[in-house]
Amino acid sequence: MGYPKEILLIRHAEKPADSSNENLSIKGYERAAALAYYLPDTFGSIDHIFAAGVGHKSHSKRPIETVTPLVERLQKKIHDSFLKYQYQDMISHIFENDTYTDSVILIAWQHTDIEAIATAFGAQNVPSAKWPEDCFDLVWQLSYTGNATYSLTQTPQLLMYGDTNTKIEQTQTLSFCEQLQTVDPRELCGTQPMVPAGNFPNQAMTCIFQVPKTHVPDGLTEQYIFVGAGYLLSEQAIINNQIAAVLNVAYDENDAADLQIPFSDPQIDKREALPFPLANNESYFLNQLSKIGLVDGNENDIMTLVAAVQEADQLLNFPSPAQQKADGMVNFYAQGNLVIHCHDGGSRSVTVAALYLYYKYFVQTEITFQQVYKSIICLRWNHSVNNHPTLGICENAYEVLQTFEALFPEPIRKK
């Protein structure tokens, strides 16, 4: 195992105002051209250049475009096989390959991961404050200290109009979302596992909430909300947990496999049948599926997260088949429990469930959103294999809290 002599970390250059444009802005291209001279003139010879690659859930071309002029000037290769969420794999590759020992490496990445990359390399004085959203003009230089650690020096580029001498300062207070990325599950949740609501199997999904009896829709005596992992869903799991509605908050890409959620067979599922015979033009379904596309990071359209919360409310409050018939429907759906899931059962399903429960039941009580979020996380940790919710989607939830409170229904539990 070898250690690079120097590691230069930069954020990609400026981006356009249009968030759907994955390229640099005009100013970004100008900075990229200037960096081709600034970086070697300031920091000396650069041996290897890495940039976050383009691929599944890693669509931005900006890191590669930022170093392209430098690569062309130095006649180097861009190492872009690691996508933005694979930075740990990139670091392992560097440490395990003697090619990089005693070399100088430049890494261009998205700003939300630069602190984590520096920490994973062994930097000892990484600022705990977040990298500012509007900061494109800073270089973090990691210098090897000889004992498997690096010292960190911040160097303002001062290349473009508007660049400043500002460095990222230390802060003593982490946000709730930032704390979730560093805390051990045993510290957060305690050693005594939380008990899920109801008496349901937990292989594919965890029952995180029983709807208060005063709010169970007509036609049901009890109702539950689950969060789960899409890749674990099976027909038997849906039957065992009496799932009548599935809210898919998995990847927003047009992935056919992502939508292939199993539905229970009326010949096998023994839930109560319709209270009336079906006419020739009528059908009965034991499940209904809705999909809202969310990504793991903080690049979500916040209205999409709002739509997911409102969709959960509609699915939970679906009328009884008798009421459906009275309303003139010819395709009837069963009532029952709701599962909110994403592909891996992690941050997206937890975030949507936490937002829904907070707005619906707790917003005017002494129970905080952090407590609701924590309880769902701990249930998932104790009853399934799951990671910390991602920082980005947690921050998206706080943006919803701050922006859209008036859109949500009056909670049924009050002080």
Fold and architecture overview:
- There is one protein chain.
- With 415 residues, the chain is of the alpha/beta class.
- It folds into two domains: 6-172, Rossmann fold (3-Layer(aba) Sandwich), CATH 3.40.50; 182-407, Protein tyrosine phosphatase superfamily (Protein-Tyrosine Phosphatase, Chain A, Alpha-Beta Complex).
- Helix content is 32%, strand content 16%.
- It has twelve helices and 13 strands.
- It has a six-stranded mixed β-sheet, sandwiched between helices.
- Strand 2 (48-51), helix 2 (62-74) and strand 3 (78-79) form a beta-alpha-beta unit.
- The model has no long low-confidence stretch (mean pLDDT 87).
Instruction: Please report the first level of CATH classification, the CATH class of the largest domain.
Output: Alpha Beta
| Outline | elongated
Query: Main β-sheet, in a few words?
Result: 6 strands, mixed
Radius of gyration over C-alpha positions, nearest whole angstrom? 25 Å
Average of pLDDT? 87
Indicate the low-confidence ranges by residue numbers: none
How is the largest sheet built, in terms of strand order?
3-2-4-1-5-6
- CATH-scheme architecture of the largest domain: Alpha-Beta Complex
The number of helices is 12
The number of domains = 2
The structural class is alpha/beta
How much of the sequence is in beta strands?
15-25%
CATH superfamily of the largest domain: Protein tyrosine phosphatase superfamily
Straight-line N-to-C gap:
59 Å
Helix content: 25-40%
Q: Give helix and strand order, one letter per element, not per position.
A: EHEHEHEHEEHHEEHEEEHHEEHHH
Q: Count of DSSP E strands?
A: 13
Query: What name does the CATH topology of the largest domain carry?
Result: Protein-Tyrosine Phosphatase, Chain A
